[in-house]
Design brief:
alpha/beta; single chain; globular
Length: about 375
């Protein structure tokens, strides 16, 4: 796959164009008139006319008919063209790769899940990833988002010592994969990608996604922790409406807090880590015990960060949703009662089976809409 595969759309480089595109995306098939776009963005009608002309020229916007006006001639309505551009999201798990092709409206138009051995080496993993990107589409792409277990450096696109796979330490995955694909690549932790997807979709808050401003953040009440239990255990944090990564993408290494000093050895080299205790209970088929351990960690997180809600996900949780939601909720309720506070809600994350991979695609798409 060469550099000709990438999309080079001048209209996407403008912040004001992003504002207009986001409003068109939100409007859906009904579309919006130029006057409505000007009113909601604060731009002048002349500026909106120039932006929409460029968007139409690039194929990102199209006419959606006319709407009756309160005075004067009917207004032309514009709509987003979802298929004008796409992004690919990749989830690199320890034992499988999930790939999704997502259009501008956030709809998954193709997906695939294939076996993967994360320990087979970076070159082999990149070869599998490149093959899946090519298999999904021959259409131009905005880029590829990659989500995988941490720790890693999101800003530099470099992996660190993935638990159980120390050979990944220091590998420049973002740049290496970008060279191979001839496309922009963004790298983030799987839990951050899932949290981003939940926040953008609004399912975490029971509404239509992030508000405008502050980098896509909403009010200070928009805070939650997404706890992901699958082949490992991690957390994605949204604080004040924005994904919280920390200065070195170190936030959310939830599974490696020590909860038993003389506990079993963890894959990270420590003892008594939350991840090791949870996975050991799961291996015994004791989901109730795993949920209590997970609840203890969640309660610590709630008390430390004063978040508004806890969302649970990952293949282990979705495979036994009731005992995990009930068990974690019971621990949080008990802790809240002791502290004299109302309990924080605990629910199953309301998302698709490819939530992490979709979040990886949003690493590419969200900036297009200024989010």
């Amino acid at each position: 796959m060469n550099s000709d595969t990438g999309v080079n759309l001048p209209a996407l480089r403008s912040h004001n164009a992003a504002l207009v595109l986001d409003l068109l995306r939100t409007a859906g098939e009904d579309g919006a008139s130029r006057l409505e776009l000007a009113e909601h963005t604060g731009l002048t009608p002349q500026a909106v006319s120039k932006i929409t002309a460029r968007l139409r020229e690039e194929g990102l916007a199209a006419d959606a008919g006319r709407r009756a006006s309160t005075g004067g001639k009917p207004r032309t309505v514009l709509r987003l063209v979802p298929g004008a551009a796409h992004a690919v999201g990749l989830q690199l798990d320890r034992d499988e790769l999930t790939a999704v092709l997502v259009d501008l409206s956030g709809v998954v138009v193709a997906s695939a899940v294939v076996p993967l051995d994360l320990g087979s080496g970076a070159e082999v993993v990149m070869e599998v990833a490149a093959g899946e990107v090519a298999a999904l589409t021959s259409r131009p792409l905005l880029g590829v988002g990659v989500a995988m277990p941490g720790p890693l450096d999101h800003a530099k696109g470099v992996t660190h010592r993935v638990t159980g796979f120390p050979e990944w330490d220091g590998f420049p995955l973002r740049d290496a994969l970008a060279r191979r694909l001839g496309l922009p690549v963004v790298l983030d932790k799987d839990t951050n990608a899932a949290a981003l997807n939940l926040a953008l979709s609004g399912t975490a808050f029971g509404r239509g996604g992030f508000g405008r401003g502050g980098g896509g953040g909403g009010s200070g009440a928009d805070s939650f922790a997404y706890l992901h239990l699958g082949t490992g255990l991690g957390a994605g944090l949204v604080l004040g409406g924005a994904v919280h990564r920390g200065a070195r993408t170190g936030a959310g290494e939830f599974g490696h807090q020590t909860v038993q000093l003389d506990g079993p050895v963890c894959g990270c080299g420590g003892r008594g880590c939350l991840e090791a205790l949870c996975l050991a209970a799961v291996a015994r088929g004791d989901h109730a015990s795993a949920a209590r351990v997970l609840g203890a960690g969640a309660a610590n997180l709630v008390q430390l960060l004063d978040i508004d809600r806890v969302l649970l996900g990952g293949r282990v949780v979705t495979g036994a949703a009731e005992p995990f939601v009930h068990g974690v909720r019971a621990v949080l309720e008990e802790r809240a009662q002791r502290m004299g506070r109302p309990p924080v809600p605990v629910t199953l994350a309301d998302g698709s089976p490819h939530m992490v991979a979709e979040g990886a695609a949003q690493l590419i798409l969200a900036p297009v809409f200024g989010r």
